[in-house]
Amino acid sequence: MKINEIVRYIFWFILFVLVQGLILNHVNIGGYLNPYLYVMFILLLPFDISRPQSLIIAFLLGYSVDLFAGTPGMHAFASVFAAFSRPFLISSLSKRDDDDIETRPKIRSMGIRWILYYSSILVLIHHSVYFFIESFRITEFFQTLSRSLLSSLLTVVMILLVQFLFFSSIGSKKKFSS
After folding, report:
1. Is the pTM of this model over 0.85?
2. Confidence (pLDDT) at 136
């Protein structure tokens, strides 16, 4: 990874933490929906990043959000779990015979359908882990499950908007399709 890419990732890391901590942590729609856009940073990590690196980055990201939210490690745990699940998800969604994989998951290179599946599954994993840790009651299983699903839907919509606004170019060639 080149130094300018590292600087860019540091910038996005700080931006995602600040937007989540200062703005989105205060968004609670109907007492039920919470957008956690910071998960997008985990989604955007390069495909060729090592597992230990991605787990450390995910921990630092989640812990930074925990500091803003006052949650004792819940975001850190959910982020690490999502980062741990990420390679399995990528390998199950990607075609084995494609050699021209771009190094980062973006709409421009992967296609909208692939990004939608990838984002939806990983965000649902993250949110489910987070909300079930937060609730920690089996009696609220269905309420927590619906909260996870609805918050995941809101977060995925926000991720797609950010992808279209900052990471895509219209009319570009797609290399993957599912």
Report:
1. yes
2. 86
Residues 40-76 have pLDDT tens digits of 999 999 998 999 999 999 999 999 999 999 999 999 9
Distance CA 124, CA 148 (A): 7
Give the residue among 171, 175, 173, 157 at the shortest CA–CA distance from 40: 157
Tell me the three state secondary structure of residue 70. coil
Angle between helices 112-135 and 141-162 (to 10 degrees): 140
CB 20 within 8 A of CB 67: no
Q: In the numeric block, which tokens belong to residue 51? A: 């597992």
- Assess contact for 57 and 114: CB atoms under 8 A: no
Other beta carbons within 10 angstroms of residue 2's beta carbon come to 7
Q: How far apart are the first and last CA of the chain?
A: 28
pLDDT at residue number 89: 94
The three-state secondary structure class of 29 is strand
Spell out the alpha helix ranges (H) of the chain.
3-22, 39-43, 51-69, 74-93, 107-110, 112-135, 141-162
User: What dihedral angle (degrees, nearest 10) is formed by the CA atoms of 14, 154, 142, 23?
Assistant: 40
Q: Which residue has the tokens 């130094």?
A: 3
